[in-house]
Design a protein that fits this description.
heterodimer; A: about 450 residues; alpha+beta; PmbA/TldD fold; 2 domains; 7-stranded antiparallel β-sheet; 23 strands; B: about 450 residues; 6-stranded antiparallel β-sheet; 6-stranded mixed β-sheet; 20 strands
């Protein structure tokens, strides 16, 4: 990444603090994206593109100015930096910047970069997935397969002398199946991904994935509607982690905690969940979807224990909001691209393994819901009320999984649900998702072992 | 490099490689101001855009885009679009418009680009303080924001098309948090505008505070079927999330249950869904679509009957009809289809008259989780919601911790009365409040 050299960076940062501010940062991004769509066994679209731009952040106390542009000409950057800082209070900072070489760190080793892969190999994988999914059952009326990869290079420099470079390579593969039954459609999908190059596909079992997407669609097409009311719920592992992400994860982000708008403000050291709940946010898990070496303001990522045996141990903290809270950064600052001011977000967030077995969990349930796979969810930070959708669900009757049910959202309050988790299994697994919030849409890992919740409201019919 | 020069450079360089080419160039300025505790919490100003090339080779279309505009990026665009065209195997023909019919490009009327940023900052700073002063129970704001976007769109191709348009709009939004004892509730209000003087901060402040305070002392309800008034914002959210089912593109991909239903009654005969690309004050207005085809106002659903799907040139050719001018895209995507200001035609009753009509039921003001609890392919939705009880024709207590569940294709048959309180939403759909009967609501009472 040679487009902007270090002396330009030094001059732009110096200019940024000329009129006001006590801290300035440059975020330079160069990202190449590729996405391919297949439907009806034909490649419908193959699109490549290049995102390129510079984000300039200037801070004075707790106040931030943010500017971004695609035009990396030094004169333009200096002019933008000067204009942007005019609204801040002037500080006297003696700046001596000397950026030599940026620091680097590898969390996600990459073997085969996307640009080195012949597009026909990608297409072959997609056709294989299509065939398996389409042939699963006569009721499968449509299958869409998606492939995407990206190679994002970032360089971050600030007026405290930080100068780092990070490269994030990711890939994701998806199969979505539609089953038609009695004039209705139901869907099922799988979307595995990783912070890896094309070597991700060496061990990906496309046959199993194609069958899974179609099996969910077919099962749900014959399912009756989920019941309404409060029920015990057993959530299976991996994407069940959306529960913690919505019920608690966002509420621990410093952008909300620091301003007192989260239900978890002021609760550090207190018991906020059952004893069996330990929850972690870890951006250093090798090649995991939400992992990255440095966060998007250049702080090395780390493993953060958020909750330990029910006690709140840590928030997710970025520099600016950490200053409001008098807490150091936890390496949790992220942004979708140079177009966004970064703020505290999650990386890979999961409930850690416990000791209960699946048998134990089911045995105690007379009537309940088994949420085998979740869709997405959302949360109201102020009240803590969250929701998530069940993609594949079954009734539990007298400890046994009986019929499939569909069309249910689960709702609850974050503070309450954490205390209603009464069993945590040992089979921990992580899954991939995209999380949207103020600093944009970012890849985030979610996960958990199977978990049992004493009671949640099921929004069926 | 100006847009025309850039387009011509690309056409020249690519002329021996492609049969046809089209460029789509977007540029704009975004301003965003967030106020917290009477200070600028964050202020962002940006000039950014991108360019996309789509090129046809042997009937197959390839796409590429770049945010970096330079000689080097022209080569990247051409080479990537070429590689892309060579791998496409779909038999659908993508067509380019030759620009023979010119759009009605309305005189662009917005003063936002010329307003000094200090005035914008002062406006929302005053909004925050006025809002806080309206009640002692207001303890915080979750967001107090001014945002405006001024953008330019240029489309040109080797078949003779060259069109350009500007657009601008602003949004002022405030999220408020109130506390009574140990309990916190939040609420909000927003407005959209083209000209700075249209913003009335007293109205927004009052709306935000009333909205927040009315949520205290909520109750849940017993799970049952109710007569429900879905408020205008919630109707917009729901229809915007289901918009794709009216798209010919999805119908042709067998992803819409409206396939084969043109001419059929698909909803209540009170439902009129109109595509209106020049609806006054809407933030998604467009004189031409993403293929440069002039847009038009027409009924998608008329008295409950499905009249047409929304089309672009490709989908229209496949069905042997004329395009409806609904091509849509960003410079980062391929060509798709979407509505421009989808409008649900209002009825005669105002909101109070709707609650009178209902007698006993529930108002749903806000629905959440649309990206996950709603599936446009199946039409099923199960969404957390909040609102108010209607008792003896009047709004009484706040209601929360409930979900509303149905299938969209059944839901639109259950429309009983459409109100007249039309609101312009942030997603480009424009709707009044509507009474629906016999709706499943789950609660925990």
């Amino acid at each position: 990444m040679n487009l902007i050299n270090s002396s330009t960076i030094e001059r732009v940062l110096t200019a940024a603090l000329e009129n006001g501010g006590d801290f300035a940062e440059l975020f330079i991004e160069d990202r190449v994206n590729s996405s391919i769509n297949l439907i009806d066994n034909k490649i419908e679209q193959n699109l490549s593109g290049r995102d390129y731009g510079v984000g300039i952040r200037i801070i004075s106390g707790f106040n931030t100015v943010y500017a971004y542009t695609n035009d990396d000409d030094e004169a333009n950057l200096i002019s933008i930096a000067r204009k942007a800082s005019v609204s801040l209070n002037k500080s006297n900072i003696d700046l001596v910047l000397n950026f030599d070489k940026p620091n680097t760190r590898i969390i996600n080793p990459i073997k085969v970069y996307p640009r080195d892969v012949d597009v026909n190999r990608k297409i072959e994988l997609m056709k294989k997935g299509y065939d398996v999914a389409k042939n699963y059952d006569d009721s499968i009326s449509q299958v869409q397969v998606g492939y995407l990869d990206w190679d994002q290079k970032v360089r971050i420099a600030n007026t405290e002398g930080l100068y780092v470079e990070d490269r994030r390579v990711r890939t994701r593969y998806s199969i979505s199946s539609v089953a038609a039954h009695n004039g209705e459609y139901q869907t099922g999908s799988v979307r595995p991904g990783a912070s890896m190059g094309f070597e991700f596909y060496d061990n990906l079992d496309i046959d199993a994935l194609g069958k899974e997407a179609s099996q969910i669609a077919v099962t749900m097409s014959k399912a009756k509607y989920a019941p309404s009311g409060s029920l015990p719920v057993i959530m299976d592992n991996a994407f069940g982690g959306v529960l913690f992400h919505e019920a608690c994860g966002h509420g621990l982000e410093a952008s909300f905690v620091s301003k007192g708008t989260s239900v978890y403000t002021g609760l550090l050291g207190q018991k906020i969940a059952s004893d069996c709940v330990t929850a972690i946010d870890d951006g250093t898990i090798e090649n995991e979807w939400g992992s990255l070496a440095y966060d998007d303001e250049g702080t090395p990522t780390q493993r953060n224990v958020l909750i330990e045996n029910g006690i709140l141990k840590s928030y997710l903290v970025d520099r600016v909001n950490g200053a409001r809270m008098n807490m150091p950064s936890t390496g949790s600052c992220r942004r979708e691209s140079y177009r966004y001011k970064p703020t505290s977000r999650m990386t890979n967030t999961f409930i850690d393994s416990g000791n209960n077995t699946r048998e134990e969990m089911f045995a105690g349930v007379e009537k309940g819901l088994y949420a085998k796979k979740l869709g997405g969810g959302s949360v109201n930070i102020t009240t803590g009320e969250f929701n998530f959708a069940v993609m594949e669900g079954y009734l539990i009757e007298n400890g046994k999984i009986t019929e499939p049910v569909r069309g249910a959202s689960l709702i609850g309050s974050g503070r309450e649900v954490l205390e209603k988790i009464d069993m945590v299994g040992s089979d921990l697994s992580l899954a991939e998702g995209m999380c949207g919030a103020a600093s944009g849409s970012i890849p985030a890992g979610v996960g958990q072992p199977p978990v049992r919740i004493k009671e949640l409201t099921v929004g069926g019919r | 490099m100006n847009n025309k020069t850039l387009a011509n450079s690309i056409f020249e360089k690519g002329s021996k490689l492609f049969d046809k080419m089209e460029v789509y160039i977007v540029s704009g300025t975004d301003t965003s101001i967030n106020i917290y505790n009477q200070e600028i919490d964050s202020y962002s100003i940006a000039e950014a855009g991108g360019i996309s090339l789509r090129g046809i080779l042997d009937g197959k279309v390839g796409y590429a885009y770049s945010e970096q505009v330079s000689e080097e990026s022209i080569d990247f665009l051409i080479n990537s679009a070429l590689d892309s065209a060579k791998t496409v195997t779909t038999e659908d023909l993508e067509l380019f418009y030759d620009g023979k019919e010119l759009p009605n490009v309305n005189k662009f009327e917005s003063d936002l680009a010329n307003i000094d940023v200090k005035k914008k900052i002062a406006l929302v700073t005053e909004l925050e303080s006025k809002t806080r002063q309206l009640s002692d129970l207001i303890v915080n704001t979750s967001s107090c924001m001014y945002q405006d976007t001024v953008s330019n769109r240029y489309i040109a191709n080797t078949e003779g098309l060259e069109v350009e348009s500007q657009s601008a709009f602003g949004i002022v939004y405030i999220g408020v948090i109130a506390k009574n004892g140990d309990v916190m509730h939040d609420g909000m209000a927003y407005t959209t505008f083209y000209n700075f003087d249209e913003v009335n901060i007293d109205t927004i402040a009052k709306e935000a505070v009333d909205n927040t305070l009315s949520k205290f002392n909520p109750t849940s309800v017993k799970s049952d079927k109710y007569t429900v008034i879905l408020k205008n914002d919630a109707v917009s959210d729901l229809f915007a999330s289901m918009e794709s089912v009216f798209s010919a593109e999805l119908v042709q991909k067998k992803l819409s249950l409206l396939e084969g239903k043109i001419g059929e009654l698909i909803g209540s005969d009170k439902l009129n869904l109109i595509n209106d690309p020049l609806y006054p004050k809407s933030i998604v207005n467009a004189p031409f679509d993403a293929e440069g085809v002039p847009t038009k106002k027409y009924h998608i659903v008329e008295n409950g009957v499905l009249k047409t799907y929304m089309h672009n040139l490709k989908t229209a050719a496949k069905m042997g009809v004329e395009t409806t001018g609904n091509a849509s895209r960003s410079y980062k995507s391929g060509m798709g289809v979407s509505g421009q200001s989808l409008v649900i035609e209002p009825g005669d009753l105002d909101f109070e008259q709707l609650t009178e009509h209902v007698g006993n039921g529930i108002v749903i003001e806000d629905i959440q989780g649309l990206h996950s609890g709603l599936n446009p392919i199946s039409g099923d939705f199960s969404l957390p919601a909040q609102g108010y009880l209607i008792e003896d024709g009047k709004v009484t207590r706040a209601v929360n911790q409930i979900t509303i569940a149905d299938n969209f294709f059944d839901f639109i048959k259950k429309i009983e009365v459409i109100g007249n309180d039309v609101k312009i939403s942030l997603n480009g759909t424009i709707a009044p409040s509507i009474i629906f009967t016999d709706i499943s609501i789950s609660g925990n009472l």
